[in-house]
């Protein structure tokens, strides 16, 4: 009997990846392009300020939170990039070194775990700055993003993106 894979774990991974990419990848991109982290944080804060009607004090607090978490995330992002580069070169000589691949994979997993913890800490710290009304609006914003992700990963007319098992 053929069964389809559940898309829920994939959706969770996609959501986490999207959030990490937006939150930390944008900062890394901006930093790598010599535009500085302020460019991305400025965009993020403008969007939040407009959607949630943030006060100037709230914007300053959130900016400080993002800057401190960015400082913690930067070495982890560099570690992930270095691991990806190492994995890219492995096996190109026709030799598979499982121990080396597993070591790099475990390092990547640990770095991702730390980034997820950082993202959740950032989310909690930012939420603590918001008023109850702003928290409700932020919750609705997050739900909109999740609906868009769900729609992209599982479209009723196309069916699942995953092949049947």
Structure description:
By secondary structure, the protein is mostly helical. The protein has one domain (8-153). It has helices spanning 8-32, 37-52, 56-89, 98-129, 132-153; strands spanning 154-155, 159-160. Strands 1-2 form a two-stranded antiparallel sheet. A hairpin with a 3-residue loop joins strand 1 and strand 2 (159-160). Helix 1 (8-32) crosses helix 3 and helix 3 (56-89) packs antiparallel against helix 4 (98-129). The radius of gyration is 19 Å and the shape is elongated. The chain starts with 7 loop residues before the first helix and ends in a 5-residue tail after the last strand. 12% of the residues are buried.
**Strand order, sheet with most strands:** 1-2
Structural class: mainly alpha
Helix/strand order, N-terminal first? HHHHHEE
Question: What count of helical segments does DSSP give?
Answer: 5
- Uncertain parts: 26-35
Largest sheet: 2 strands, antiparallel
Binned strand content: under 5%
Number of separate structural domains: 1
Terminal CA distance: 9 Å
Question: Could you say which overall geometry the principal axes of the C-alpha atoms support?
Answer: elongated
């Amino acid at each position: 009997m053929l069964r389809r894979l559940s898309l829920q774990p994939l959706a969770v991974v996609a959501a986490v990846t999207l959030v990490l990419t937006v939150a930390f990848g944008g900062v890394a991109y901006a930093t790598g392009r010599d535009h500085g982290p302020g460019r991305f944080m400025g965009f993020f804060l403008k969007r939040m300020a407009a959607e949630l009607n943030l006060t100037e004090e709230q914007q300053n607090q959130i900016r400080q939170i993002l800057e401190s978490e960015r400082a913690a995330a930067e070495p982890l992002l560099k570690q992930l990039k270095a691991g990806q580069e190492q994995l890219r070169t492995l096996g190109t000589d026709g030799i598979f070194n499982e121990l080396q691949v597993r070591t790099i994979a475990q390092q990547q997993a640990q770095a991702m775990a730390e980034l997820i913890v950082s993202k959740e800490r950032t989310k909690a710290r930012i939420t603590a700055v918001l008023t109850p009304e702003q928290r409700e609006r932020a919750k609705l914003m997050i739900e909109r993003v999740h609906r868009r992700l769900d729609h992209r990963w599982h479209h009723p007319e196309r069916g699942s993106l995953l092949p049947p098992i």
